[in-house]
UniProtKB/TrEMBL annotation:
This is Chaperone protein HtpG. Belongs to the heat shock protein 90 family. Residues 212-232 are annotated as: Disordered. SUPFAM superfamilies: ATPase domain of HSP90 chaperone/DNA topoisomerase II/histidine kinase, HSP90 C-terminal domain, Ribosomal protein S5 domain 2-like. InterPro entries: HATPase_C_sf, Heat_shock_protein_90_CS, HSP90_C, Hsp90_fam, Hsp90_N, Ribosomal_Su5_D2-typ_SF. It comes from the Bacteria. ATP binds at E31, N35, D76, M81, S96, G97, T167, R326.
Length: 631
């Protein structure tokens, strides 16, 4: 057996670092500014424990763009480096000075340090032909030094003069990266990655004498964002103002949740519940992930539960495991713990608001319902909590009727006397379109039933899943059958028609219409009920609705003919007239029009069928006027 050490040649590793370490070349500025922040935070730490003498003064970071010289300079007034430290940190690839500092000063605010891998500095070579470093240590006896490298394994290190403590990194931008010599491009990168860093950052690209004027406008970043403060220090106006800072063109949020955890992991942040418009133009990837106030990504699907991806806001944790480029999360138990914690905090907030301010909660249900239903469908633990504050909204169209809201248990108590079927299941009657299904809603309400509104895009899936998760519950759309049959099928209904008349009437309604598979039944309903009622059986309609939502995979079911049941009310007076008529053509037209009116109420009369209905109606009106004139 042989053991040894793998040798890494800098000649081979440098091109890899320069070209492939970071997929996004914009990252170079984030990495270098993060190093400058670390240098400043280290000085604060050393000053607080007495290892750095004197006042450290302003710890501003300055980004200077010189289009003529084709350089970008990143300057800080942090800890600086001695010649030996330059040798140690810059000439040893992947040696992390930040990691070394954290180990040495463990317990001294180590969470303020950003660096982890010791590779961020080398991102400079992705955009530079040459990199110069001018640095002076906080140690008074140490001379300033200058380091230079052109991206090859060779470097130059010499003593130099530098007035102030800290480090200046000068990037000589290469031809391929000329885009980074544009001031607006740099501003965009700074705004994306550095807008909440804890050290003030100033960007200048004008003449030297205008520096003070630019500084008067303030830094480009907010060093004390709301999520870094304690909830007790913030007013509702502060939360609203920070939301506006994050999303300047959005409507104000419904409410927010402030995350502030330091055990068993570090996590801070603010999550906002946005208003969801009825257009359902829902945008995910609105939550921004930070690590020590450095922007990492807005793809947080592993940290935030899927159903909460519709939220907006910020989460920040130094404990979130990132890969070298900070672009992707690494598998780690902390990710799952954070995910579970966020779910619990959201459930706590929703339950608290429901219990303490129910009217306000009900007023926001149009937006909140989407989150709650989505969560109950995808997370069983959340569903256990959600059952307490999930609401059904009534769908009454009656003039002056007040909107009511029921939890599942409240609905059960209010409706189960009338709305239990033969299997002893509670039947929840719902509408997907209060206008189109108005007649069915009124028919159900006339029997004392409670109809609720379930009209969002996710409700078909929600209904299917809750039928399997809730005990003894069945959903029935209000137009799935005539009102008499919505709860229990009643087979023996009295009709004034004889068996022969019923058979003749059923034959008249045996219509063939493209795209519809119709079943006809004659029943004895109230004389006030419509002459014909078109209903779509719940199971088949639900299958088609789900198929329409599932895209190309569901096209087979979506393209199947619509299943429709025509319930002919044999007790309606109009059929005495129809059956007695000797005019076969007129009789067929009247029956066809009655069927079409029923189909029209279900939105099933389209295309040629609708055109035929209009033409037939004109013919019938003309015939009626002619008959009246003869009389």
């Amino acid at each position: 057996m042989q053991k040894g050490t793998i040798q890494v040649q800098t000649e081979n590793i440098f091109p890899i670092i320069k070209k492939f370490l970071y997929s996004d070349h914009d990252i170079f500025l984030r990495e270098l500014i993060s190093n400058a922040v670390d240098a400043s935070q280290k000085l604060k730490t050393l000053s607080s424990i007495g290892e750095a003498k004197g006042e450290y003064g302003d710890l501003n970071i300055e980004i200077k763009l010189d289009e003529e010289k084709k350089t970008i300079t990143i300057s800080d007034r942090g800890i600086g480096m001695t010649s030996a430290e330059v040798e140690k940190y810059l000439n040893q690839v992947a040696f992390s000075g930040a990691e070394e500092f954290v180990k040495k000063y463990k317990g001294q605010n180590e969470n303020a340090i950003i660096g982890k891998f010791g590779l961020g500095f080398y991102s400079a070579f992705m955009v530079s032909d040459k990199v110069e470093v001018f640095t002076k240590s906080f140690k008074e006896e140490a001379p300033a030094v200058r380091w230079e490298c052109d991206g090859s394994p060779e470097y130059m290190l010499e003593e130099t003069t530098k007035a102030d403590r800290g480090t200046d990194i000068v990037l000589h931008i290469n031809e391929e990266s000329a885009e980074f010599l544009d001031a607006d491009r740099i501003k965009g990168i700074l705004n994306r990655f550095c807008r909440f860093l804890p050290i003030p950052i100033y960007f200048r690209h004008k003449e030297e004498e205008k520096l003070e004027e630019e500084k008067e406008t303030g830094p480009i970043n907010n060093t004390q964002p709301a999520w870094k403060k304690k909830p007790s220090e913030l007013t509702p106006e502060d939360y609203q103002s920070f939301y506006k800072e994050l999303y300047p063109y959005n409507e104000p949020p419904l409410f927010w949740i402030h995350l502030n955890v330091d055990y068993p992991f570090n996590l801070t942040g603010i999550l906002y519940f946005p208003k969801i418009k009825q257009s359902y133009e829902i945008q995910k990837d609105k939550i921004q992930l930070y690590s020590n106030q450095v922007f990492v990504t807005d793809e947080v699907k592993d940290i935030v539960p899927e159903f909460l991806m519709l939220l907006h806001g910020v989460i920040d944790s130094p404990d979130i495991p990132l890969n070298v480029s900070r672009s992707y999360l690494q598998g780690d138990p902390n990710v799952k713990k954070i995910n579970n914690h966020i779910t619990k905090k959201v459930a706590d907030k929703l339950e608290e608001l429901f219990n303490k301010e129910r009217k306000e909660f009900e007023g926001k249900w149009d937006s909140l319902g989407l989150f709650v239903k989505y969560g109950m469908m995808t997370d069983d633990k959340f569903m256990e909590r959600g059952n307490k504050f999930h609401l059904f909204e009534t769908a009454s169209n009656a003039e002056g009727a007040e909107k009511k809201f029921y939890t599942l248990e409240e609905y059960r108590m209010a409706a189960e006397t009338l709305q239990k079927n033969k299997e002893e299941k509670l039947v929840i009657l719902y509408t997907t379109d209060m206008v189109q299904q108005d007649a069915f809603i009124k028919g159900a309400e006339a029997k004392g039933y409670i109809v609720v509104k379930l009209d969002t895009l996710i409700d078909p899936s929600f209904i299917n899943q809750m039928e399997t998760k809730w005990n003894d519950v069945h959903f029935n759309r209000v137009d799935a059958d005539i009102a008499d049959n919505l709860i229990d099928k009643q087979e023996n209904l009295d009709s004034v028609l004889s068996k022969d008349e019923e058979s003749a009437l059923k034959g008249l309604f045996d219509l063939k219409m493209p795209g519809l598979n119709m079943t006809v039944e004659v029943k004895g309903l109230s004389t006030d009920a419509p002459p014909v009622v078109a209903t779509r059986p719940e199971f088949m309609r639900r299958m088609k609705d789900m198929a329409n939502l599932s895209g190309p995979m569901g096209s087979f079911y979506a393209n199947m003919p619509d299943e429709v049941t025509l319930t002919v009310n044999g007790n309606h007076p109009i059929y005495q007239q129809v059956l007695k008529s000797d005019n076969k053509e007129m009789k067929e037209k009247m029956v066809h029009n009655l069927a079409d009116l029923a189909l029209l109420s279900q939105g099933l009369l389209k295309g040629g069928n609708l055109t035929n209905f209009i033409n037939r109606s004109v013919d019938l009106m003309g015939a009626e006027q002619l008959a009246g004139a003869k009389a």
